[in-house]
């Protein structure tokens, strides 16, 4: 998610726009741009690279004017009379673009945002507000948008749907931003826009209306966070903020990839067909850390739904073991940052050997995104905490959708089953929210067991894959020794470590191996371990055999990892807090491992 800023007042707009963008730059952008009305025209200046590159470009000729907007990519219509900045995704942009091209609009980019600028030009009838309303009637998706119009140089219009937008109230000037850190140096008095609300922002007046055009009276929200807390959206740590962002991150990752009828997956980025898929006799998934754990789940999904054999490998191993990779291999690399050096090297090596390559990454324009033949983005927004959370859940969502997409092409799943899965997918964001709504028991467990030196995680099948991720989370931020075991492997060694009072987190959500998992739980209970069970709602059995149960909403057992990982993230977080650890910057670790 990029930063949006806007200014209208008596001061030079560029000054605030650059300052506001710089406050949001910690998210890491690949470009920056501002648009300022200079009394005659709207002058747009953009630049590839960090904000410093834009500053350098305009340092001797800063756009002059007292109204303007900024973003990574401000977009204009054909005439240059309309400028739009946008966060989010316009789902129906392709259809709108075709229509607008037919009407003679010339596009300069492939982005969905540019469509909005041309659409405004197309529907403009002299009434700026009414024309924006018409645009909003026509677009579908999630967005925060700010519009600027040369014919109305006294106002900005902004609106939002599923993306944040805030208006900062000044004295004879007003500010717009996607996030509070951008405005906190200028004002602490804000209006937080709700979905569907539209604001006309002038220097000395703000008018807010709802979807029906009715006036809305809003309460002023006084921001009393300091600048650092503001970046964290009021949460104590980025990790906690990012855990709570998961419903939105998952929704954004799904959006645009579900057909209008809600029954199929569409992957406009891929456009694969049966010939393309039949060419592969093997799929490799290669990644590091949490992304590797997502790959393990990805393998399960692709094999189960699309019936294609998949191998998963840690990138640092894969690249040095002379893997059997050729033109009949599909290599999928997974990387939040898109910059992990081992993953990038594995990708380059596989390309050299002739493989087709696909990247699942979160960072647009990253090295891995640029290197891979094809890219699927997780639209998780910037992940700042070293411990990866929302990247993992969005990677799982994307793998599930990819597997369904492959299954549709290969005909390995009946249409009704695909439709059923797509229906369940759409429930996941609300189910994550539900999981996040009651953290108190997890806090209590973290306090109770946070000083143990060893914790074990067990599970079978997909539960084991999630156990691996849960253990990694606990290790990296709380420094507790945590090990994940396939529950059936316990007897082959690890059971020797289970003694009185050792905490064991037991995941038991997979129906096909439920009884087997229960018998493993009984084994550790018999050694007096303290067992915290993770179960699906409606499971009345598990509580008979464990000390505590954490329940997540019921869904298909394939999708449940996206829910069960959430309490494990929270457990790690609160355990780290209990132990006084630096949650966002754990010792010895970096967010992105760009050296070997
Ligand atoms: O950016 P990437 O997804 O390639 O990063 C891979 C790992 O370094 C990363 O997932 C790491 O394991 C996290 N700190 C785990 O929380």
Structure description:
This protein is of the alpha/beta class and 596 residues long. It has three domains: 5-224, Glutamine Phosphoribosylpyrophosphate, subunit 1, domain 1 (4-Layer Sandwich); 232-426, Rossmann fold; 440-578, Glucose-6-phosphate isomerase like protein, domain 1 (Rossmann fold, 3-Layer(aba) Sandwich). Helices cover 37% and strands 21% of the residues. The chain contains 19 helices and 24 strands. It has an eight-stranded antiparallel β-sheet with strand order 3-2-4-1-10-9-11-14, covered by helices on one side. The protein has a six-stranded antiparallel β-sheet with strand order 5-6-7-8-12-13, with helices on one face. A five-stranded parallel β-sheet has the order 16-15-17-18-19, with helices on both faces. β5 (75-76) and β6 (82-90) form a beta hairpin. α15 packs parallel to α19 (561-578) and α16 packs across α19 (561-578). 52% of the residues are buried. The protein binds 5-amino-5-deoxy-1-O-phosphono-D-mannitol. 5-amino-5-deoxy-1-O-phosphono-D-mannitol binds next to α10 and α17.
């Amino acid at each position: 998610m990029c930063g949006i800023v806007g200014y209208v007042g008596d001061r030079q707009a560029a000054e605030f726009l650059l300052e506001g963008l710089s406050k949001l730059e910690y998210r890491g952008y690949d470009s920056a741009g501002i648009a300022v009305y200079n009394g005659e025209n709207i002058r747009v200046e953009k630049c590839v690279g960090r904000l410093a590159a834009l500053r350098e470009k305009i340092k001797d000729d800063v756009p002059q004017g007292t109204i303007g907007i900024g973003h990574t990519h401000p977009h204009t219509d054909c005439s240059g009379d309309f400028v739009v900045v946008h966060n989010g995704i316009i789902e129906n942009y392709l259809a709108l673009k075709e229509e607008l091209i037919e009407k003679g609009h010339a596009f300069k980019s492939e982005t969905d945002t540019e469509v909005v600028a041309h659409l405004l030009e197309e529907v403009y009838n002299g009434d700026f507000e009414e024309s924006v309303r018409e645009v909003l009637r026509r677009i579908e998706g999630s967005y925060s948008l700010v519009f600027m119009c040369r014919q109305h140089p006294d106002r900005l219009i902004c609106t939002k749907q599923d993306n944040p937008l805030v208006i900062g109230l000044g004295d004879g000037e007003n500010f717009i931003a996607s996030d509070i850190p951008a405005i906190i140096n200028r004002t602490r008095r804000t209006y937080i826009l709700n979905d569907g609300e539209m604001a006309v922002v002038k220097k000395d007046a703000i008018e807010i209306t709802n979807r029906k055009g009715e006036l809305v009276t809003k309460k002023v929200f006084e921001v009393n966070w300091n600048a650092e807390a503001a970046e964290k959206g009021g949460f104590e740590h980025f990790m906690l903020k990012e855990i709570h962002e998961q419903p939105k991150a998952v929704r954004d990752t799904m959006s645009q990839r579900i057909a209008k009828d809600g029954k199929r997956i569409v992957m406009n980025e891929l456009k694969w067909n049966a010939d393309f898929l039949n060419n592969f006799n093997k799929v490799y998934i290669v990644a590091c850390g949490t992304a590797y754990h997502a790959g393990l789940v990805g393998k399960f999904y692709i094999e189960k739904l699309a019936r294609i054999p998949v191998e998963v490998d840690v990138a640092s191993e894969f690249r040095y073991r002379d893997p059997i990779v050729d033109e009949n291999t599909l290599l999928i690399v997974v990387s939040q940052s898109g910059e992990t050096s081992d993953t990038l090297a594995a990708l380059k090596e596989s390309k050299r050997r002739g493989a087709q390559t696909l990247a699942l990454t979160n960072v647009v324009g990253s090295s891995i995104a640029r290197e891979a033949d094809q890219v699927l983005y997780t639209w998780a927004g910037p992940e700042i905490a070293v411990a990866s959370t929302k990247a993992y859940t969005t990677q799982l969502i994307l793998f599930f959708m990819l597997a369904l997409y492959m299954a549709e092409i290969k005909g390995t799943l009946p249409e009704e089953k695909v439709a059923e899965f797509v229906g369940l997918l759409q429930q996941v964001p609300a189910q994550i929210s539900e999981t996040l709504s009651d953290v108190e028991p997890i806090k209590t467990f973290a306090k109770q067991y946070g000083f143990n030196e060893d914790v074990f995680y067990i599970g079978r099948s997909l539960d084991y894959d999630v156990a691996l991720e849960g253990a990694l989370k606990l290790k990296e931020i709380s420094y507790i020794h945590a090990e994940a075991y396939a529950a059936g492997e316990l007897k082959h060694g690890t059971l020797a470590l289970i003694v009185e009072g050792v905490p064991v987190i037991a995941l038991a959500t997979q129906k096909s191996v439920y009884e087997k998992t229960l018998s493993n739980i009984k084994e550790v209970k018999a050694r007096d371990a303290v067992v915290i069970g993770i179960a699906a709602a409606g499971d009345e059995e598990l509580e008979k055999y464990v000390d505590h149960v954490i329940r997540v909403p019921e869904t298909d057992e394939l999708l449940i990892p996206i829910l069960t990982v959430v309490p494990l993230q929270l457990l790690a977080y609160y355990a780290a807090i209990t132990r006084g650890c630096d949650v966002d910057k754990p010792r010895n670790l970096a967010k992105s491992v760009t050296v070997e």
